[in-house]
């Protein structure tokens, strides 16, 4: 007796789509590479617009070359116009021209935008031209749903020096003056627990996590911003997305591992180990 052919498999639903606009880290710990790893770990489809290529390893950045603005624009349009996005994350933008280009593109996107205003690498290497700071303040931060500066980036952008937890509120207020809806001031460089402040100027959320003595923390900022964007794409509100991202990154830092002779990366796949 003939059997009926098996029905075709059900086509799976596409996961939420998140776009990272950032530089490439050849060592795989930060930048585009970290962003895509975090997005995969959190269950979204990661896409990329590469703004710059770095020669980078566990010891630092030995070279960086930005892409032409037209290449950045073409990558962005090819993804957004065909595939679409539910959230965008920005990282290393390198020059004023690229900041202006990306800010203009984001102004026409309705999805939430997480801006990591990358100024220097974990090793202290400059990743943003000094003359681009004005464009970050006036063009990029105003289109941000969440801005995620660390303390060095706060000082670069606002002139506010954070010496202790009591300065975080003042730093957040200075960042919010440039127009993002929310500011997440990352206090990981302070003594004691790793404490961050998320605020929109009205409500405050203090996020604390125990400090780990693991020195392998390369890619922490990129990973956090990508995790926030991923949770926003999955439907979380900003406070919930930031809290979930903080929990994910805390685990990734604890599981960070040695590579090369310097600072190794956080472990983006720590939940799978």
From TrEMBL:
Catalysed reaction equations from the record: 4-amino-2-methyl-5-(phosphooxymethyl)pyrimidine + ATP = 4-amino-2-methyl-5-(diphosphooxymethyl)pyrimidine + ADP; 4-amino-5-hydroxymethyl-2-methylpyrimidine + ATP = 4-amino-2-methyl-5-(phosphooxymethyl)pyrimidine + ADP + H(+)
Pathway named in the protein's UniProt entry: Cofactor biosynthesis; thiamine diphosphate biosynthesis; 4-amino-2-methyl-5-diphosphomethylpyrimidine from 5-amino-1-(5-phospho-D-ribosyl)imidazole: step 3/3
Enzyme class: transferase
One term of GO molecular function: hydroxymethylpyrimidine kinase activity
Stored CDD domains: HMPP_kinase (cd01169)
EC number from the UniProt entry: 2.7.1.49, 2.7.4.7
Keywords: Kinase, Thiamine biosynthesis, Transferase
Membrane-spanning ranges: none
InterPro entries on file: HMP/HMP-P_kinase_dom (IPR004399), PM/HMP-P_kinase-1 (IPR013749), Ribokinase-like (IPR029056)
Residue ranges of domain Pyridoxamine kinase/Phosphomethylpyrimidine kinase in the record: 25-267
Keyword Kinase (UniProt): yes
Job description of the protein: Catalyzes the phosphorylation of hydroxymethylpyrimidine phosphate (HMP-P) to HMP-PP, and of HMP to HMP-P.
PANTHER family per the UniProt record, alphabetical: HYDROXYMETHYLPYRIMIDINE_PHOSPHOMETHYLPYRIMIDINE KINASE THI20-RELATED (PTHR20858:SF17), PHOSPHOMETHYLPYRIMIDINE KINASE (PTHR20858)
Cited NCBIfam families: HMP-P_kinase
Name of this chain's protein: Bifunctional hydroxymethylpyrimidine kinase/phosphomethylpyrimidine kinase
């Amino acid at each position: 007796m003939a059997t009926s052919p098996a029905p075709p498999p059900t086509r799976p639903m596409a996961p939420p789509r998140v776009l990272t606009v950032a530089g490439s880290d050849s060592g795989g710990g930060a930048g585009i590479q970290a962003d895509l790893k975090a997005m995969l770990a959190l269950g979204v489809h990661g896409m990329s617009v590469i703004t710059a290529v770095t020669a980078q390893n566990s010891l630092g950045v030995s070279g960086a070359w930005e892409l032409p603005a037209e290449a950045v624009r073409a990558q962005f349009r090819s993804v957004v116009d065909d595939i679409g996005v539910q959230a965008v994350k920005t990282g290393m933008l390198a020059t004023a021209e690229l900041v202006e280009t990306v800010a203009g593109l984001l102004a026409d996107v309705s999805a939430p935008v997480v801006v990591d205003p990358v100024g220097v690498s974990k090793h202290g290497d400059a990743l943003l031209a000094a003359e681009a700071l004005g464009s970050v303040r006036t063009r990029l931060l105003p289109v941000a749903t969440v801005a995620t500066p660390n303390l060095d980036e706060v000082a670069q952008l606002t002139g506010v020096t954070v010496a202790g937890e009591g300065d975080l509120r003042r730093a957040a207020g200075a960042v919010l003056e440039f127009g993002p809806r929310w500011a997440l001031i990352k206090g990981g460089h302070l003594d004691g627990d790793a404490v961050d402040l998320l605020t929109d100027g009205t409500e405050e959320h203090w996020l604390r996590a125990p400090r780990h003595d693991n020195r392998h923390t390369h890619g922490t900022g990129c990973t956090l911003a990508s995790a926030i964007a991923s949770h926003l794409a999955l439907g979380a509100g900003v406070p919930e997305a930031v809290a979930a991202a903080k929990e994910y990154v805390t685990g990734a830092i604890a599981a960070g591992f040695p590579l090369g002779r310097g600072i190794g990366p956080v472990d983006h796949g720590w939940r799978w180990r």
